[in-house]
Amino acid sequence: MLSANVGRPRGAGFGAAAPDLELRWFDQVGSTAPGRQIRRADTAEVSVDSDAFRTQGGVGLRVRRVGNLINLSTPVGLAIALLAKAKLRPGPRGLILAEHYRFAFPVAGAFTVGNVVLTRSSFAELTVRFPQVLDHEDAHAWQYLLCLGLPFLPAYLAGSAWSWLRTGDLAAQNPFERHAGLHRGGYADVPIRPLRQAAAQVGRSIAELGRSGRRESSEKSGQA
Question: Are the C-beta atoms of 171 and 163 separated by less than 8 Å?
């Protein structure tokens, strides 16, 4: 996932890889729905210069592509993209880029479900601000495979909760974000705070929720 504060691979470009299972399937779906055909990428639209994107293909990427298809994470990502009316196109290293995602949740510059990377803007814009964003999201695609698909989501949420407890930030100590590279995703490496301080903040938050609930109850009683 890319923080909400938000060269070209060797070969002929992002659209040069052989069609994969997800894209073949979506070519068929797109052919039956006007405007839903995956458009082939203009290689000038996204430039990724890091070493992680200098090669395209390979056994490992094929394993990830098929694995995330079988474990349903990529089909779920594609379904989310369709529901959000995102524009789909092939990306590097077997990723599928979904641009102009229309839902408000999650609050992130970009996020990944299986091999599908979604953003509310375009990757041409994102890579100007965050040149390594696709490196970061590529790591999340591998994490889906290692977590056997959708179990990644509750594990990621647990990591976010742990990070907030230790730092007050949802990403800084989330092991999935640290593995993907905080800087590459636009996150700051926030210092760890003492558990006593974290517990005090949790207590204050709970107390504030209680006060808010009592105020709402009082207002409703007064209106009645």
Answer: yes
CB-CB contact of 68 with 74 (8 Å): yes
User: What is the 3-class SS of the chain, one letter each residue?
Assistant: CECCCCCCCCCCCHHHCCCCHHHHHHHHHHHHCCCCCCCCCCCCCCCCCCHHHCCCCCHHHHHHHHHHHHCCHHHHHHHHHHHCCCEEEECHHHCEEEECCCCCCCCCCEEEECCEEEECCCHHHHHHHCCCHHHHHHHHHHHHHHCCCCCHHHHHHHHHHHHHHHHCCCCCCCHHHHHHCCCCCCCCCCCCCCHHHHHHHHHHHHHHHHHHHHHHHHHHHHHC
Which tokens go with 175? Answer: 């092991």
Q: Which residues pair with 97 in a beta bridge?
A: 89, 117
State in Å, rounded, how far the first CA of the chain is from the last one.
46
Dist. CA 153–CA 18, nearest whole Å: 29
> What is the full per-residue pLDDT of the chain (224 aa) written as tens digits?
766 554 333 333 333 333 344 444 444 333 333 333 334 343 334 444 444 443 445 899 999 999 999 999 999 999 999 999 999 999 999 999 999 999 988 888 899 999 999 999 999 999 999 999 999 999 999 999 999 999 999 999 999 999 998 898 999 999 999 999 999 999 999 999 887 777 777 777 777 776 776 666 666 666 65
**Whole-prediction pTM:** 0.70
Prior bond of 34 cis (ω within 30°): no
